[in-house]
TrEMBL record:
InterPro entries: ATPase_P-typ_cyto_dom_N, ATPase_P-typ_P_site, ATPase_P-typ_TM_dom_sf, ATPase_P-typ_transduc_dom_A_sf, ATPase_P-type_domA, Cation_Transport_ATPase_IB, HAD-like_sf, HAD_sf. It comes from Paraburkholderia kururiensis. It holds the Pfam family Hemerythrin. The keyword Signal does not apply. This is P-type Zn(2+) transporter. Its main location: membrane. The chain crosses the membrane at residues 6-26, 33-51, 63-89, 227-246, 252-273, 562-581.
Length: 759
C-alpha cells in the first residue's frame, strides 16, 4: 500500500480514536484538534485527486466528499469531519487493494527474451551480449535455446515456431531458409547467419506491439464515477433547498454528510475484491478490479486455436496399416524405435503405444536425422520411422500412401511413416486435438450471453475452418499473424466489449489490445501472461466460464449495493433537509448504511460458479478414459474393414466380417453394456435430475442395434461373397458404427472431464 493511501488511513483512524479518548476525559479542545489533524491528510489527498480528475476531464464522487469535510471543519464539526475522513480513507485503501494487481510490468516478456548469443570469433564460439550481434555474424543455437535474432540457416534445424505462428507442429527447416527470432530449437544444435540486429528482429517487434497496445488502451473507469454527476446534482439540490428554506447551515452540513457517497466508494471495491478472491479459488488470477468489471460486460470472445481451443501438442488420431499388417504392430514398432528419440512427435507416438499397453522392444543402432526421422533395429529388423520422404528412401511407397497423405493434409495433421526391412508397413496419424472441455466451455459461454465466438489462428484456411465447424464458433479467421490478430481485436472493440484468449507470444499484442486479455498461464508463454488481464492458472478453458459467471454476479452484487446505498442516502438527505437529522447523527447513520452495503457486497465471497451437485474422482475418470484407449484398435479395425471391403476378394468378405463380429462381441459390446448397467446409474446420481443419462444410454442402444444387424447380415452372406448392393450396405453399417462409437467415446470423455472438474 503506498504512503498516499496508508498515511491518511492511519492518521484518520488514530486521530479519531485518540480524540474520543481525550473527549472522554473532558479535554474537548485537544480532541477537536486531533480530529481536525486527522481529517486534513484526507482533505489534501482528495484535493489532489480532484485536480487530476479535472485535468482528465472527469468528474468523480470525490468532490462531494471534499465539500463535506471542508464544510464540517468550517462549521467546527471536527468529529463529523473525522468520521467522514475515516470512511473515505478506508474506502480508498480497499479500492487501492482491488486495483493493485493491475499494475503489472511486462517483466516476464523481457526476461524470457533472448539475452545472449553464441557467436563465432577467433576460431571459437563465444557467448556475447545480444545487442552486440550484427547482420552477417555466424551464430550457434543449441538445443533448447531460442533463436536470438532473425537470420538464415546453414544447417538443418527443427524449430518449435508456435510462439510466433500459433501452429503446434514442429517445423523442419533446411539450410538457406529464413528463421525468426523467438522460435525454439527442439532439435540438435545448428548454425545460422544473422540477418538483423536484436532491435530489428521479430521478437523485439512483438514486444513493441505489446507495449503500444497497452499504452493505447484507456484505463478502466471506476464504477462509482459513472453515477457521480447524478448523485452530486441531487445532493447539491437537497442542500440548497434546505438552506433556502430555513437558512440553517447545520442542515446543509447534515445533508452533505449523509450525501458523502461512501456506499459507492466502499461497496464496489469490497464486492470486486471478493469476486477476485472467488476467481482465485477457481484457479483464475484477475489482475485488477477494472478487468473483472470489463469481463462482466463481455459480448465477444476471440480465441487463439493452438494451445487454447486445442491441447497444443500432438496426439494419436489413427493408425494406417498395409494389407496384412495389424495396426497395433505398426504402432508398437514405431514406438519402440521412437523411444530413442527426444523429438516431440516420437514422444507422442510412444505415449500412444503405452496408453494401449503395448509391449515395446528396446531399439539398437539408432541414428536420428534432424528434421527427417530415425532409423535403427527393433527385434532384429531394420526399422525406419519419420516423414514420407525420409522413409521412402529405404522403402518403396505403397498404394495406400497417396490417399493417406491427402487425408492428413485435409485434416492439418502430422504423419509418421513406418518401414520394416525395406517395406512400408503403415503410418501413424497425429494431430493437435481439441481440448476435452472446449465444446462444453463454448456452449456455456453462449448460455452466458456471449454473442460472438471468433477463432483466430495461424493455420491454413482449410484446417482452421474444419476445426471451427467442429466447435460451432461464429467466425473463423485463419492465417493470422500477430499484427493481423491485433488489428482484428481493435476493429471488434468499436462495437463490443472484447475478450481475447491466447497462450503464446504471438497472442501477446492481441491480449494487450483487448478489453480483457485472458492467458492460458499454466503452459502459456510468459509474454501472454504478462500482457493479459486474466490468467487461467489451471490449464482448462472452462475456467473462463467460471470467471465470467463470477464477474457478472460480482458486478450485479456491486450494483445492488450501490443502488441500495444511494437509495438510503437519498432518504437520509431528505430527512436531514427537513431538519430531523443533525450532522453527527447523520455521520453515524451513514456508517450504518456503509455497514449494510458492505455486508451485501461481501455476498460475492459466496458466489459459486459451478452447478454440478457431484463430482467424479480423477483416478476413476482416468480409468474410464483408459478403457476408451483400449477400444482404439477395435475402432480402427471397423474403419479399415469398411475401407477395404470393395477391394477384397468376394470369397474373403465373409471371413473378414466374421472376425469383425467376434471383435465386437468380445470387446465393444461388453464394454458398452457394462457402462450402461454399472456406470451410468452412478453418473446419473452425480449429475442430478430424473434421467440425465438418457441420451447417452440411447447411443448405447444404437450401437447394440448396429452390431446385431451386422451379425445377422453376415450370417446370410453366401459362400461366393455378397453382391454389390449387400457390399454397400455392409460398408454403410461399418461406417455408421465407426462414427457413432467415436462420437460416443468423445462425449463420454468430455463428461468424465466435466465431472472431475466439478470437484
Amino acid at each position: 500500500m503506498p504512503w498516499v493511501t496508508f498515511v491518511p488511513l492511519l492518521a484518520s483512524a488514530l486521530s479519531l480514536i485518540a480524540g474520543l479518548a481525550f473527549a472522554g476525559f473532558g479535554r474537548s479542545a485537544v480532541a477537536h484538534a486531533l480530529w481536525t489533524l486527522g481529517a486534513v491528510p484526507v482533505l489534501l489527498v482528495l484535493a489532489v485527486s480532484i485536480v487530476r480528475a479535472l485535468r482528465r476531464h472527469e468528474a468523480g464522487v470525490d468532490v462531494l466528499a471534499l465539500v463535506a469535510i471542508g464544510f464540517a471543519l468550517a462549521l467546527g464539526e471536527s468529529l463529523t469531519a473525522a468520521v467522514i475522513a475515516l470512511m473515505l480513507a478506508s474506502g480508498r485503501a480497499l479500492e487501492h487493494y482491488a486495483h493493485a494487481r493491475a499494475q503489472r510490468e511486462m517483466t516476464a516478456l523481457l526476461a524470457h527474451a533472448p539475452r545472449h548469443a553464441n557467436r563465432f570469433e577467433a576460431g571459437e564460439w563465444r557467448r556475447v551480449e545480444l545487442d552486440d550481434v550484427q547482420a552477417g555474424d555466424r551464430l550457434l543455437v543449441r538445443t533448447g535455446e531460442f533463436v536470438p535474432v532473425d537470420g538464415s540457416l546453414t544447417d538443418h534445424a527443427e524449430l518449435d515456431e508456435s510462439t510466433l505462428t500459433g501452429e503446434a507442429a514442429i517445423q523442419p527447416r533446411r539450410p538457406g531458409e529464413a528463421v525468426q527470432s523467438g522460435v525454439l530449437n527442439v532439435g540438435p544444435a545448428f548454425e545460422m547467419v544473422a540477418a538483423a540486429s536484436a532491435g530489428d528482429s521479430t521478437f523485439a517487434g512483438i514486444v513493441r506491439m505489446v507495449q503500444f497496445a497497452r499504452e493505447a488502451r484507456s484505463p478502466a473507469e471506476r464504477l462509482a464515477d459513472r453515477y457521480a454527476v447524478l448523485f452530486m446534482i441531487a445532493a447539491l439540490f437537497f442542500a440548497l433547498a434546505s438552506w433556502l428554506a430555513v437558512g440553517d447551515l447545520a442542515r446543509v452540513l447534515a445533508v452533505l454528510v449523509v450525501a458523502t457517497p461512501c456506499p459507492l466508494i466502499l461497496a464496489v471495491p469490497v464486492a470486486i475484491v471478493s469476486g477476485m478472491s472467488r476467481c482465485a479459488k477457481r484457479g483464475v488470477l484477475v489482475k485488477g478490479g477494472g478487468a473483472l468489471e470489463r469481463l462482466a460486460q463481455a459480448g465477444a470472445l476471440f480465441f487463439d486455436k493452438t494451445g487454447t481451443l486445442t491441447g497444443g501438442h500432438a496426439r494419436l488420431v489413427a493408425v494406417e496399416s498395409a494389407p496384412g499388417t495389424a495396426s497395433d504392430d505398426v504402432l508398437r514398432i514405431a514406438a519402440s524405435l521412437g523411444q530413442a528419440s527426444a523429438h516431440v512427435i516420437s514422444e507422442a507416438v510412444t505415449m500412444a503405444a503405452r496408453e494401449r499397453h503395448l509391449a515395446l522392444a528396446v531399439p539398437s543402432s539408432v541414428i536420428e536425422r534432424a528434421g527427417a526421422g530415425v532409423t535403427g533395429e527393433v527385434d532384429g529388423h531394420a526399422v525406419a520411422i519419420g516423414s514420407f520422404a525420409h522413409v521412402s528412401e529405404v522403402a518403396a511407397p505403397q498404394p495406400w500412401c497417396t490417399a493417406f497423405l491427402q487425408r492428413v493434409a485435409y485434416e492439418g495433421a502430422s504423419a509418421v511413416f513406418v518401414a520394416v526391412d525395406g517395406v512400408m508397413i503403415g503410418a501413424v496419424q497425429l494431430a493437435d486435438q481439441i481440448r476435452l472441455e472446449t465444446p462444453r466451455a463454448l456452449r456455456l459461454l453462449r448460455q452466458e450471453g456471449i454473442r460472438r465466438l471468433v477463432m483466430l489462428t495461424g493455420d491454413r484456411r482449410d484446417v482452421a475452418e474444419t476445426v471451427g465447424a467442429m466447435l460451432g464458433v461464429t467466425e473463423v479467421m485463419p492465417e493470422q499473424t500477430p499484427a493481423d490478430k491485433l488489428a482484428a481485436i481493435q476493429a471488434a472493440r468499436r462495437d463490443d466489449t472484447v475478450v481475447m484468449v491466447g497462450d503464446g507470444v504471438n497472442d501477446a499484442p492481441a491480449l494487450a489490445a483487448a478489453d480483457v486479455g485472458v492467458a492460458m498461464g499454466a503452459r502459456g508463454a510468459a509474454a501472454s501472461s504478462e500482457a493479459a488481464d486474466v490468467v487461467l492458472l489451471v490449464d482448462r478453458l472452462d475456467r473462463l466460464v467460471d470467471a465470467l459467471r463470477v464477474a457478472r454476479r460480482t458486478r450485479r452484487i456491486a450494483m445492488e449495493s450501490v443502488v441500495a446505498g444511494m437509495t438510503l442516502s437519498f432518504a437520509a438527505m431528505a430527512v436531514a433537509a427537513a431538519g430531523y437529522l443533525p450532522p453527527l447523527a447523520g455521520a453515524l447513520l451513514q456508517e450504518f448504511i456503509d455497514v449494510a452495503v458492505i455486508l451485501n457486497a461481501l455476498r460475492a465471497l459466496r458466489i459459486h460458479p459451478g452447478t454440478a451437485p457431484g463430482s467424479l474422482a480423477r483416478d476413476d475418470a482416468d480409468r474410464l478414459k483408459a478403457g476408451h484407449a483400449e477400444l482404439g484398435p477395435v475402432m480402427e479395425q471397423i474403419r479399415t474393414l469398411a475401407d477395404e471391403l470393395p477391394r477384397m476378394p468376394p470369397h474373403a468378405v465373409a471371413a473378414a466380417l466374421t472376425r469383425m463380429n467376434e471383435s465386437l462381441a468380445q470387446h465393444l459390446v461388453p464394454h458398452e453394456q457394462h457402462d450402461d448397467i454399472e456406470l451410468y446409474p452412478g453418473l446419473a446420481q452425480l449429475m442430478g435430475g430424473d434421467d440425465p443419462m438418457a441420451a447417452m444410454s440411447g447411443t448405447h442402444r444404437e450401437i447394440f442395434r448396429l452390431a446385431r444387424m451386422l451379425k445377422q447380415m453376415t450370417a446370410h452372406v453366401p459362400p461366393e461373397g455378397p453382391d454389390a448392393a449387400s457390399l454397400r450396405e455392409f460398408q454403410r453399417l461399418l461406417y455408421a458404427l465407426d462414427a457413432i462409437v467415436r462420437l460416443h467415446c468423445a462425449q463420454e470423455d468430455e463428461l468424465f472431464h466435466a465431472l472431475v472438474e466439478a470437484g
